[in-house]
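Run log, item B.
One chain of 110 residues. Sequence copied directly from the ordering sheet:
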Amino acid sequence: MKLRERPIVLVTGGGGFLGANTVRSLRADCEVYYTYHEKPADIPGVRGYPLELKVRASIERALDKAQPDAVVHLAAMTDAAACQADWDEAFAVNTKATETLLDVCGGTAS
């Protein structure tokens, strides 16, 4: 296995507040890519990929493009009122999509 000079990290939810700040923090030590749902973050020197969390093929595309050594999963439906108003959507985004991401990365959900 060839060792990389800088590890590649993919941050999901990089268009959000927490994700964008995580990307900014990691970029000094890692090659960082991020995903966004609607609007890309304006982070110089970092590439973003659109991601529809509920679509497995979209997750696979983002991982294929970035070829990361690690994934920091920060994408989520975070508005508590919206989650309460549409529990099925919140479950699909926050739970099922996370399980799919884990599966695509080669992990297992427990």
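Observations after the first pass:
- The longest helix spans residues 87-105.
- The domain at 8-105 is CATH 3.40.50.720 (Rossmann fold).
Flagged for discussion on Thursday.
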